[in-house]
């Protein structure tokens, strides 16, 4: 299932208050890739004037949620997507606006096959965080599951 950036963004903004709080912008959302942007906002700066680590974490986690929703939103009647763990690495100083690009770490068809077999699949979503000059400032992996609804 592929949703437009507006519909996915609207859905996440309606259900996840932090998306609204940080004014995240949805540039691309699809089952293969999601791209979200955190505008430069002084209210969310750290001690050196760049985006706070917590804001960058939320940006990356939200990008992962957007791709999961785009890839598996048509399964919500039978399974609930949940983040189960994550790891983030801050690699370079981020200044200005930053962008998170998320990609599924396993083919969606493989994940759905596990769900169809009665399993609770887990899968990684890899996210790259970049600043305006294209330099990667961070990377994150979020492990998601599709928990079957009872």
From TrEMBL:
Domain of life: Bacteria
CDD domains attached to this UniProt entry: PaaI_thioesterase
InterPro entries: DUF4442, HotDog_dom_sf
Gene3D superfamilies xrefs: Hotdog Thioesterase
Family matches, as Pfam families: DUF4442
Name listed for the protein in its UniProt record: DUF4442 domain-containing protein
Species of provenance: Streptomyces luteosporeus
């Amino acid at each position: 299932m592929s949703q437009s950036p507006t519909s996915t963004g609207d859905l996440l903004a309606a259900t996840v208050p932090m998306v609204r709080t940080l004014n995240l912008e949805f540039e691309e959302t699809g089952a293969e890739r999601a791209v979200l942007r955190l505008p430069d906002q002084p209210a969310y700066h750290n001690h050196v004037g760049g985006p706070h680590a917590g804001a960058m974490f939320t940006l990356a986690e939200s990008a992962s949620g957007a791709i999961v929703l785009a890839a598996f939103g048509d399964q919500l009647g039978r399974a609930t997507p949940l983040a189960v763990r994550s790891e983030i690495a801050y690699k370079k100083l981020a200044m200005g606006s930053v962008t998170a690009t998320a990609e599924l770490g396993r083919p969606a068809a493989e994940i759905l096959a596990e769900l169809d077999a009665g399993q609770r699949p887990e899968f990684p979503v890899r996210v790259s965080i970049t600043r305006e000059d294209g330099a990667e400032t961070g990377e994150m992996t979020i492990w998601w599951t599709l928990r079957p609804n009872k």
